[in-house]
User: Which sequence fits this backbone?
């Protein structure tokens, strides 16, 4: 079974998707980490971020993999920490916007997701990567709450600066952040992690019959 969890930055996707996968005993696939890892490698190799063809070729040659502990690996390097840098936050939409890059990444995401029961987190999972996913959820939350959540992950950065950054990222990610027509839209603004996980777990149970 595939559970697709999509939504914008700060909507709670990562926390919810990894907790849900743990609870269900499913694999957890973080597709944002894949775009981040490719951005890190492109920077290290000095590639121009506006060259979609070259970036797609880089992605094809160096498929991202995940260890059993969830470490993110590209070109033989564990980049789990580096891909969370503010610099990568800023650059990744420029890489993720190229259709050629998305094509390679989506292919890789489908093959990683096909290994077994998976919770796949991203922006376009229910709509494009796995349109036949058995459960599709699109998480939303109001902007102030999303900025507060990000500030908990990035202590030392002002909430106002994070709010501006979120707006910019929302604009750049908007075209690829689309709920599937049949996704359940879940507003997490006033919900705790456990409540969100619980309601998605109920959808999974209902689907299992
Ligand atoms: O969810 P995140 O912040 O780790 O995502 C990093 C970037 O990758 C962000 O700019 C959105 C983009 N992304 C995407 O375009 N499609 C996905 N399936 C996942 C992430």
Assistant:
């Amino acid at each position: 079974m595939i559970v697709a969890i999509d939504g914008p930055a700060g909507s709670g996707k990562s926390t919810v998707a990894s907790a849900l996968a743990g609870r269900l005993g499913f694999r957890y696939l973080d597709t944002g980490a894949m775009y981040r890892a490719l951005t890190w490698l492109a920077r290290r190799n000095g590639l121009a971020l506006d060259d979609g063809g070259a970036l797609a070729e880089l992605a094809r040659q160096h498929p991202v993999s995940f260890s059993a502990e969830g470490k993110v690996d590209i070109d033989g390097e564990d980049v789990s920490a580096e891909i969370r840098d503010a610099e990568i936050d800023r650059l990744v939409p420029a890489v993720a916007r190229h259709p050629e890059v998305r094509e390679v990444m989506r292919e890789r995401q489908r093959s990683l997701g096909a290994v077994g029961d998976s919770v796949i987190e991203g922006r376009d999972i229910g709509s494009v990567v796995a349109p036949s996913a058995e459960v599709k959820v699109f998480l939303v939350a109001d902007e102030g709450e999303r900025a507060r959540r990000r500030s908990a992950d990035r202590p030392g950065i002002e909430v106002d600066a994070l709010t501006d950054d979120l707006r910019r990222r929302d604009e750049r990610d908007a075209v690829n952040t689309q709920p599937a027509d049949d996704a359940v839209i879940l507003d997490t603004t006033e919900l705790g992690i456990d409540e969100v996980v619980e309601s998605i777990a109920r959808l999974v149970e209902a689907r299992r019959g």
